[in-house]
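Notes from the 1:1 (GR / supervisor)

We went over the backlog. Supervisor wanted to see one worked example end to end before approving the batch request, so GR pasted a single chain during the call. The sequence is below; no edits were made to it. Supervisor asked that the structure be written out right there so they could see what the output format looks like.
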Amino acid sequence: MLDILWSLGAFIVTLGVLVTFHEFGHFWVARKCGVKVLTFSVGFGKAIWQRQGKDGTCYQVSRIPLGGYVRMLDERVDEVAPNERHLSFNSKSVWQRAAIVAAGPVANFLLAIVVLWGMFLIGVPSVKPVVGAVTPNSVAAQVELPTPSEIISVNGRRTEDWQQVNLGFAAALGDDTATLTVRDERQRERTFELDISNWRLGDEQIPTFSALGFQPFQPAIYTELAYVQEDSPAAQAGLQVGDKILALDGTLYEEWSQIRDAIMAAPAEQVSLTILRNGAELELPVTMGEREFEGKTYGYLGVEPARDSYPEAYRFVQQYGIVDSLVKGTERTWNLMVLSVQMIGKLLTGTVSVTNLSGPVAIAEGAGVSASYGLVYFLGFLALISVNLGIINLLPLPMLDGGHLLFLGIEGVRKRAVSERVQEISYRIGGALIFALMAIAISNDLLRLFK
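Structure output shown during the call:
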């Protein structure tokens, strides 16, 4: 319940910030162009807070936090006094109206730059993209990549961490090959050509590098116990820190991953553990606990294995000065903008499945998880969603800013506005398309939850 409330709170903060900046972009440019703004609303529906400003604008927060709007004086929908006609939106030139419409998405892009600038100023704890293993029979396995090796670029784009590797492969979706440059243990750089002609991104919610078979480096894990939880099945059976698990029900295991899988496969079952303690083998009967996860029941013992510490050589902090952080934030924003456009194109061509569309539930989960990790991770998430919101609003669909810009472009070429009848029909079609996309996204969210 607390997780749900945390995610809900982070979701409201995220949308509140993004919508406020988006609508402020429209508001600020409208005022600069001499347009009277009647209402500035964060959210839709009935207002839960309102204040009349000295500038004549009603500022409000409404009940439904899934958007917002700026209502401007417009002769097409309002009765406008003759002395105020010059303040109406429709009285402005095509270029002024286009600037007002485009200002919302532009504000989202600028917000992303500022947020990422702050993120890089604070510093982002990161790990180098070192490949520890390769999944057999995968795309990565075909090139016989040496392990461990650090990925330093994908298609010529520098990759400092796993997030950039993920974005680099996402940008390569649909291509026949992807060029991968790595640095091996001897500091030698080698380049490989990955055949990704048959690779498509399905509905698996995993990073692109995992789908291709790259497994990030993990410190060695041992079968010796480093922690035994109080009042757990392990503690009740008499397991102690330092015990080494050898077998379950007579089956010998050498890897902790095998022991973990065997434990998870035996919920509420009584099993015999063979352990090594102080050089002597012991047999301990234990009744496994059980836990629910995503609708399935798994066995639970209540122990943690000993493992090596993560190499300090692989850790670093992405932190820069004031100017360099601004440059980095601008570069990252531009890369996210380009990738967002590419992914929309790949959705249309079928390279990326529509099952990858995410709705408000997935956004809420992402907001909650990133916020729980810390401020810098939440800032990165906020920038990503801000860029996506800006790009989506620029799609040439009626009801979106991009649709309005399309009509204004046609008006600029024809020297007369598109008829109200055509606009009305277009808005209905656009509304239906947007509703369908939202329905798909929300359905995907619900399917993931039920899975």
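Supervisor's comment: The mean pLDDT is 84.
Batch request approved.
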